[in-house]
Amino acid sequence: RAKAMGRNTYAIYDSTLEQKAKDRVQLISRLHTANDNDEFDMFFQPRYRLSDGKLIGAEALLRWQPSPFELVEPVEFIDFLEETSLIIPVTWQMFERSCIQFKPLLERNSELFMSFNISAKQLEHPEFITKLQQLLTLTEFPAERLELELTEQTLIQNVENSRHILRQLTALGISVAIDDFGTGYSSLSYLKNFPVNVLKIDKSFIHDIDTDKDDFELVKTMITMGRNLRITTVAEGIENEEQLNLLKQESCDQAQGFYYNKPMPFIDFKKLV
Ligand code: C2E
Ligand code: MG
Ligand code: MG
Ligand code: MG
């Protein structure tokens, strides 16, 4: 189409594309250096039980600190880590560090667990379970205090492999959470076929439950379904007290969101515990 509009347009279109490709190559090369220079870190966002408001866990979230004054969130770079498979070494390193940091906290709060996000690239890697077990052994982190978050999208990319891995995780005592639940356009039948312990209802549904009747109905249905299937329900992205009250009223099990805390450096999470 740009070509049909004449030479100049074509040139602009072309140079933008070229610039984009250059930016991309540059960012990827920068991410490699970031890995070598140990510029990645984990933040922790607390999770609470709604029945008594108790802090019961935290989700570990990746951050990139290219300089002491910058903090980059995953939306800016996680796709590139996936694309280049850098996600595998980076997050294993982060996983090991998080287990070491988190472990002493387990004694201070007997219910506390750590939740960690796993990408499709990691799940399809043949060494996934072996590596996971190795790091749990190395750090002496109890499997029962670990939860892994997987999206519906990740699980349906390779159903047979996912089922196999989830069974092994369950056998190890690791809890399995479906992240961003409701956004995956996938069939609910996987809830029947996969061993799932936790549903994390996506924040896009939680965001308007206090103002949008339809969203509230959808969330109510997800909570009821979770209860009937004996799966723990977690509301992601809760930002105000009205949302909290509605979720409590519907007996949603747990919640996480800016209403309670934003993701924070480990040192701050430690103080909180
Ligand atoms: P996620 O796993 O669904 O994580 C929740 C995201 O929601 C986090 O964004 C968190 O900061 C944000 N959030 C929490 N509460 C609220 C709230 O009340 N309001 C709003 N607006 N947002 C809230 P973050 O840390 O930017 O991470 C984005 C995504 O990047 C994560 O979504 C996850 O898919 C991915 N990610 C983060 N860390 C890792 C990691 O270590 N490994 C992998 N594979 N993916 C990761
Ligand atoms: Mg964010
Ligand atoms: Mg998550
Ligand atoms: Mg999520």
From TrEMBL:
This is Bifunctional diguanylate cyclase/phosphodiesterase. Residues 24-273 form the EAL domain.
